[in-house]
Amino acid sequence: MKTNQLLMSSALILNFCLSGAAFSQSMEEDSQPVEESSDSAMLLGNMVDHRSGVTDTDEKPYEIYQIMSITGIRSWFDNNFNTDATLPVHYLSETVQEVTTLEGKPALAFKTSEYEKLMQNLLVDDSESQLVLYRIVAEDSSKLLMQMLGFIPAETPSVDTGRRAIQANRQPTAAANPPASCQNNKYRFGAITGTYNGVPAYSNCQSIYVSDQPSSYSGYTTGWKWQCVEYVARYFKAIFNKKIAGGDANSYCARASEKGLKKSDNGKTSDKPQPGNVICSNGGKHGHCAIIRAVGSDYVEVIEQNFNNSSSDANHRLSLKKIDGKYKVGDFSKSHPVACWMWPK
Fold it and tell me: Which domains does the chain carry?
């Protein structure tokens, strides 16, 4: 599939939220990092579009990410991928090679280890302000690489099967250090991105980062710092004294009743969203949740964690329409449509 087959859209950034599978990990306009598996988009900075294709001969599936970049191929790569082997998603430095595609375009070939799965990546500098990332399971990569490069750039390295993985039932353990790039930027890990009703939201710095640091409020564990579901759980504990932590963001709508919440399904209710409601998406592998802070005649404004990891997370505005008496809230991002909103019973 050629780059010009990709459909352009507004700049999106898919956040991904883990929680039970890691308390929550987790794209909107002008945003940042998606996901580690082949059935959901990866969280990447300045991503515009995500498509899938198959190799010419044996029809092996691969993913294509279209990225707007003004920093250049190497700078973007350094800002979005990390070599820290203690992280569940990281690249293998020995596999990084500067190559040229058959069309004469500069590219980086590299492999990533993602929750014990090895992926082959090919990042192509497609134009002055656009990058294209091709991703395929490493064991299926030879045909795609030959198709794009005309040769195989690297042997597959062995994967350390002992490295840390995030388990669905894992309990908080000792803190892991954020990537070095998260220590010096404005919205470093733990920096306040905004506040609503006295409850601050914090930056996770990079959506691909999963901390081992548990967060708590008044002795109640609210999740892993600073995932999206951690913020909604902390907000509900602080404002409503309600304990709703537990499970990925994409489980919240289905588990509303057991969490002691009332629920309205998006596009199917005459109940208008209200400030203080938690609003969630089932999109991606882990979903996304946020707290509604304002509602207008044609918009819903939310505060969230681990979406763009910048001040825009404090007032992310979604569209609001009333169709045949039913309220419909617009998507967090193309891959994260709103599923429901909830409030205490």
Answer: 3-148 (no CATH), 188-344 (3.90.1720.10)
